[in-house]
Amino acid sequence: MKIFLDCLAATPCISVGTNAFIISDIQLLNRKYPGCETVLFSSNPEIDKLQFGHLPHKISYVQRSPNQILAMLQLHKIVSQVDAVVSAWGDGYITVPPYKLLRKALFLKRKGVPLVLFTSSIGPFNGGIKDKLAIMGLRKFDAVTVRDQNTYDYLKPHGLKGLRLVHDTAFVLEPCSDQRSDELLREAGLKEQKFIGLNISVLFYNLFKRRGEDYISLMVRYIEWMREKFKLPIVLIPHQIYPKGVPYTQEEYQSRDGDDRYPIERILSAIKDQIGIFALQQEMTPQELKGIIGKSEIFVGGRMHSVIAAVSLSVPSLVMQYSHKSGGMMKLLGMDEFVWDIQDEFDKFTEKTHDLWNKRQDVRVRYNEMLPRIYQEIYDLTNEIDAVAGASGE
Q: Are 330 and 41 in contact (CB under 8 A)?
């Protein structure tokens, strides 16, 4: 079995969250089809091997041409040589205009070859010709699964075949061992067992900057409030990290798609009294970060996949929302009360955090009850491939 996993952009990915669901997808495909070959269309195979080369699975890398026309021809050739195509773009059709779905789908679709969309966020749809083009693209897929309630609500009126709500595949990513996560926390200086996890995001730093607001000051204020209120250590956790071996400039390090350790450095330099404040500044795998996040008493995250890492291990969590995907994910979990939109006031942020703290034991119980069903639904995702192949008589 040879499967093309359409998941990489024209530039190498350093997002821990993106790599978490890519790793999970590769593992899911091998769980369903032991020994299968996964094909990745990579702009830089050497960098992507840093992210995925440790996996005990057969992965082939096709180096993407920097020329768009040649890249499309390469894509057509890949699709002609595989048994199935799984497209897993996360929020790729939020950050990229959704109407470009049609262009992508035209190259991915080949008669008799299953084409399945895995747990994406798409939209929003606001009407007009571009939305119609996006829906035309989605109709090329044999099955469409989306990972958040808001995306599902956008798509449901369009009558897409095989449309289903399934949680993000990163839910099933296995965390590292307790021993390894404890070791990483000790390296950061934390010896106590209980702590509050806080994901700091360079994306948020730049979002606030463009609005003329100061993310660093906001987070310093929030950290000092939490430290005083809950009397627990606070661990600042990046979820986008440049791995060793990836060349970058200082401008890239600080950019929207830069390294979360940059705003962590800024925050630490702005906090005079750092007692009880710890920062993870090592290079870590998605599995290692998930293991650490899973030890939090409560967790607050800006990046959606940092929150997925937490809730998939039953950690009571609050998400800082900048896009409909995060709120939609929490709505699907029945936890939309624990969403703070970055347009809201600071007092709303602390109020929701305090509410989460007071309800944390009940929230943990609720997650423990729902997670077995969520995991099973994700494990069953690959059945879509067989169902489509069977329907086409193959």
A: no
Count CB atoms within 10 A of the CB of residue 138. 23
Judged by DSSP in three states, 98 sits in: coil
Q: What are phi and psi of 361, to 5 degrees?
A: -70, -45
Give CA–CA dist 239/199, Å, rounded: 7
Nearest Cα to 208, choosing from 191, 220, 198?
A: 220
Please name the amino acid found at residue 270. A
**What is the C-alpha separation between 325 and 342, in angstroms, rounded?**
14
- Looking at 3.40.50.720, 2.40.180.10, 3.40.50.2000, 3.90.320.10, the CATH number of the domain 2-170+375-391 comes to 3.40.50.2000
Structure tokens at 212: 């003329």
Q: How many helices (H) and strands (E) does the chain have?
A: 18, 13
Query: 218 with 319: CB under 8 angstroms?
Result: no
Quick: pLDDT tens for 277-287.
999 999 999 99
pTM: 0.93
Residues 97-145 pLDDT 10s? 888 889 889 999 998 899 999 999 998 887 889 889 999 999 999 999 9
Could you report the per-residue pLDDT of 212-256, keeping only the tens digit for each? 999 999 999 999 999 999 999 999 999 999 988 788 899 999 998
Integer-rounded Cα radius of gyration of the chain: 21
